[in-house]
Design goal:
mainly alpha; Transferase(Phosphotransferase), domain 1
């Protein structure tokens, strides 16, 4: 969800997967892009919960995204354009890494600490 709102891959500046894993476990989350709609921002934070049982399931996620979508579909053209202009102005600046190719990997990490939720002021 963060990648959709920012147009960037999260934690792009980290070179080593171990650093990313440990920081996420310790509650670090990407900084939410200014101008991200509040409903989307709140849903993204729910999905980031360290406790998987507190994260929305796929049906809840789908329903909430549908509501956000319908809200913007039913918005007047003038208000929608104003909202989109605001979001566009606040996008994360594109950097050299946007052209890098990323692939999924499976990592096995042992003896990891218990995951924590992000705290205010601690984000990347």
């Amino acid at each position: 969800m963060w990648e959709i709102s920012s147009g960037q891959t999260p934690f792009i500046n980290y070179e080593h997967e171990n650093d990313i894993v440990m920081n996420i476990i310790n509650g670090i989350r990407p900084k939410i892009v200014p101008g991200t709609p509040l409903e989307y921002k709140n849903l993204m934070k729910e999905c980031w919960d360290a406790d998987p049982l507190k994260r929305p399931n796929i049906l809840t996620l789908w329903n909430k995204i549908q509501k956000i979508y319908l809200y913007y579909q039913n918005m007047s053209d003038e208000l929608f354009k104003s909202e989109m202009d605001n979001l566009e102005m606040n996008k994360v600046e594109e950097n050299y890494t946007s052209s890098r190719i990323f692939t999924s990997k499976i990592h096995n990490f042992g003896n990891l600490p218990e995951p924590r939720n992000a705290t205010e002021g601690i984000s990347v």
